[in-house]
Amino acid sequence: MGALVFAEHADGAINPATLHAVTAAGQMSDSVTVLVAGTNVGSAAEAAAKIAGVAKVVRVDSSEYEHTLAENLAPLIAGLASGYSHVVATATTVGKNIMPRVAALLDVAQVSDIIEVIDADTFVRPIYAGNALATLKSSDTVKVVTVRGTNFEPAEAGGGSAEIEDGAAAGDQGLSSWVGQALSKSDRPELTSARVVISGGRGMQNGENFAMLEEIADKLGAAVGASRAAVDAGFVPNDYQVGQTGKVVAPDLYIAVGISGAIQHLAGMKDSKVIVAINKDEEAPIFQVADYGLVADLFKAIPELSQALDG
Amino acid sequence: MKVLVPVKRVIDYNVKVRVKADQTGVELANVKMSMNPFDEIAIEEAIRMKEAGKAEEVIAVSIGPQQAQETIRTALAMGADRGVHVLHDGVVEPLAVAKMLKAIVEKEGPTVVILGKQAIDDDCNQTGQMLSALLGWSQATFASKIEVGDGELTVTREVDAGLETIKVKTPAIVTTDLRLNEPRYASLPNIMKAKKKPIEAMSPADLGVDPTPRLATLKVVEPAKRAGGVKVADVAELVSKLKNEAKVI
Ligand SMILES: Cc1cc2nc3c(=O)[nH]c(=O)nc-3n(C[C@H](O)[C@H](O)[C@H](O)COP(=O)(O)OP(=O)(O)OC[C@H]3O[C@@H](n4cnc5c(N)ncnc54)[C@H](O)[C@@H]3O)c2cc1C
Ligand SMILES: Nc1ncnc2c1ncn2[C@@H]1O[C@H](COP(=O)(O)O)[C@@H](O)[C@H]1O
């Protein structure tokens, strides 16, 4: 029995987040099927069929799946699940919203946000904001798992040639409807997949000052992130938040500016390869995880850094 | 309408968690415990609905050891009307919690159940979605704004790409995100008043639920520590290290 991966897609393309789930699913089982549900999903299904390591794509084209409403997707996925040993998604806000609903419909536990596959039944996941790692063994017949993207290399988006099969829609449950969205627009790389991330905290003082970080981000090809305090204060939108209850990032370089380093923030960035901290308080806990710490006033250091990057 | 709010007793978010030497879990003895912060936000939202005349009664429910009653008292001091305590020692997984909550929902008949999006101990982010599935209700997770309408809620949700707005039919499950509100502190008179508010006690068996975990915890270990870094003197040294030593820019 194989693994079923729930795919996220937009504009005919598969969301890169899903590629991490495909890799993890390949470690749980030797046959990976990808579910592509939505409206006009022809090209997304074709893109899914090209992902390396995918054996089959199930395409479900029906209007009730247009907006990833959990009430509609969960019965569809649960209905397919009996043919699989694992049902897998990436722990994005979409995956987190839908998968526990699938698990409950199947009367099985969910293993959330895994960072390692030990074997088909055994997984490692962080608990307590990453202060402990638990190894869990499931004896459920179908394992419902969400995957922390940063811990699994993305599967190659090309090279595969899976067969595409049409699946039956499960109907509109009529419980909820989509009204609209206000998405942050940016030409910079996406936060969770960027090679470099520069984040600002309460020390930035206001939203306008984030322009200083954006300037550096553009020079480094970086994404801009933030601490909860900076989001709560309204400096930047919610989707910038890095941490235990925000996004998890693991770039080659993470630059924390005016961030103290609370455990909830560290939970979202301490697996970065190289960490730089710029903070005027030499006692700030962020320095305990920083490879390079600069004790300085950010309003002096950041313009200097920007200038130095031109040289 | 009635609003039900499940509140979990967890290690306080400020505590430095320590893994037990025998690798069976984390140290809970003599550690400060508090209400899960997302559940404080849920209680606050329910109380605001009551203050706005949209809700008549707010019921706080906790599943946990005897001391979970303190967590319920905190909710009552904030303004909840009464409590339900399901006494259970030891680990209880989201699926079992959801099953117990389902039984309580069927007894109490709330129109809305507001949960935290995530308990900061297990970091599961599952219970609300599971409860919603078991009840066959609608769900609005990661809420940063809730408008109560006629037979429906309009909810703004924090999603990875920004904000999304959905409408859900009631009865509904909502889970809270950080920006929904800022929870109040209980005043001393309200803490005194809360002592007289009723808490009904029951057991998982009373609710017909077997709380035995489905997942076996093989071990709990500390993550690898990062090797300590260095302090640089100035921006020039920082840039030089990043270029020549770390080779990341
Ligand atoms: C349930 C819950 C969930 C949470 N989830 C998250 C999460 O996902 N992500 C997250 O980040 N936090 C989270 N937090 C919040 C976390 O506990 C901290 O409150 C938060 O990370 C602090 O943000 P900060 O470092 O920007 O602010 P502060 O702790 O106030 O630190 C500001 C820092 O800026 C420095 N500074 C000030 N001015 C300057 C200057 N001119 N130059 C240089 N340095 C300066 C100061 O020295 C200080 O170290 C959560 C908390 C709770 C309770
Ligand atoms: N033992 C419990 N007692 C009461 N509520 C709980 C319990 N466990 C989880 N919850 C609720 O479910 C939410 C999400 O928890 P979790 O799915 O464990 O991350 C919490 O914020 C609480 O609202």
| Low-confidence region ranges of chain A | none
Broad shape of chain A:
elongated
What is the alpha-carbon Rg of chain A in Å?
A: 21 Å
| Number of distinct beta strands of chain A | 18
* Mean of residue pLDDT values of chain A: 97
Task: Characterise this structure.
- The complex is a heterodimer of chains A (about 300) and B (about 250).
- Chain A is of the alpha/beta class.
- Chain A is built from 8 helices and 18 strands.
- In chain A, strands 7-11-6-1-4-5-12 form a 7-stranded parallel sheet, with helices on both faces. Chain A has a 5-stranded parallel sheet with strand order 15-14-16-17-18. Chain A has a 3-stranded antiparallel sheet with strand order 8-9-10.
- The longest helix of chain A is centred in the first third of the chain and has 14 residues, at about 95-105.
- Chain A starts with a strand and ends with a helix.
- Chain B has about 250 residues and is α/β, with parallel strands linked by helices.
- Chain B has 6 helices and 13 strands.
- Chain B has helices spanning about 35-50, 70-80, 95-110, 125-135, 190-195, 235-245; strands spanning about 1-5, 10, 35, 55-65, 80-85, 110-115, 140-150, 150-160, 160-170, 170-175, 200, 215-220, 230.
- In chain B, the strands form 2 sheets. Chain B has a 9-stranded mixed sheet, with helices on both faces. A two-stranded antiparallel ribbon of chain B has the order 2-3.
- At the A-B interface, helix 3, helix 4, strand 7, strand 9 and strand 10 of A face helix 3, helix 4, strand 7, strand 8 and strand 9 of B.
- Strand 13 (about 175-185) of chain A pairs antiparallel with strand 9 (about 160-170) of chain B, so a sheet runs across the interface.
- Bound molecules: flavin-adenine dinucleotide and adenosine monophosphate.
- Adenosine monophosphate binds near residues 7, 61 and 118 of chain B.
